[in-house]
């Protein structure tokens, strides 16, 4: 991609209401833009990152044997009445009426939809287990949307659902999902702590949250350094004493980036989703639910990976892998830069080529730091005298001078 053609305009100043780093940098680098409170536009650079995260998640879900589907954002009131959540879920649903004055709602979660699908198809134990997932918009009627992408009214979520005939079977799958989540977050450059949590309005007999320690996090967790116990403060009663070893608990602010639920039979019993077991008895299906919010995950990556100049994207989720920057406009530099751009493209290396002629070297470097692409290649008259380019990793200060024909092997 030529930067002169990139639909993005960086900004020197962050919005006045942007209090946290991810909000500031994502807006300044033109990755996202607010439409109105709690609702965000993902611009081309931001959507490239979002799609990278989405694909990381998708491949892990497929690796679990889950099949992908897509469910409607408009939800059937009758299904929500079956579970009793139409008027009780918190935050409350966005409700609307169609031209026939029939009520519907924008989906904040999809337990009712997915249980309806299951009960239409599962008849016996031989139909179990199975798992399905989607990556789709959710709508949350938040009282207070804050922190850029950390708390929004509309966002994209991956939700995975699993269906089982036995408790030990869901427990095995639950553990597989947790390992899959760890791999996803590691590829995103994040260290997570799994904590015991409250099921909230989703419910379930067992729930765990994946937390990233961060000063800007709205959640508070307690950690026991003695035995390793960790929990959301909402999930325990004695907040200063470890329930596992009676040691002292330490408090930390954190961001929740994933949540897993063993739902048990809460929804299957409410909606009559049953199967005939091996013993010939009719039993409710045991269900699991596992979610990741993509926008919040993207913001959390920025909260963890940045410096005073901008974001430092981990390789797996960066919009591009290489930022190619010529810093003089003379013919020799232009020709060498153009050739390197074409050569790297042929090698399927994702790169942004800063071919803008109306920007100074300083402006180009400032934009490069703000955008946070992992590798920077600089072409200048000085480097070309040695048939070389300057090579620098965004996260490091060291600059290497390498031969032009050797640059590819560093950035692959």
Could you characterize what this model shows?
With about 400 residues, this protein is α+β, with helices and mostly antiparallel strands. It folds into two domains: about 20-220 and about 250-305, BirA Bifunctional Protein, domain 2, CATH 3.30.930.10; about 320-410, Rossmann fold, CATH 3.40.50.800. Helix content is about 30%, strand content about 30%. It is built from eleven helices and 21 strands. It has helices spanning about 20-30, 45-65, 75-85, 110-120, 165-185, 265-270, 295-305, 330-345, 360-370, 380-385, 405-410, and strands at about 30-35, 40, 65-70, 75, 95, 105, 130-140, 155-165, 195, 205-215, 220-225, 230, 250-265, 275, 280-285, 285-295, 320-325, 350-355, 375-380, 390-395, 400-405. The strands form five sheets. Strands 3, 7, 8, 9, 10, 11, 12, 13 and 16 form a nine-stranded mixed beta sheet that branches. Strands 18-17-19-20-21 form a five-stranded mixed beta sheet, with helices on both faces. It has a three-stranded antiparallel beta sheet with strand order 4-6-5. Strand 20 (about 390-395) and strand 21 form a beta hairpin. Helix 1 (about 20-30) packs across helix 7 (about 295-305), helix 2 runs antiparallel to helix 5 and helix 2 packs across helix 7 (about 295-305). The radius of gyration is 25 Å and the shape is elongated.
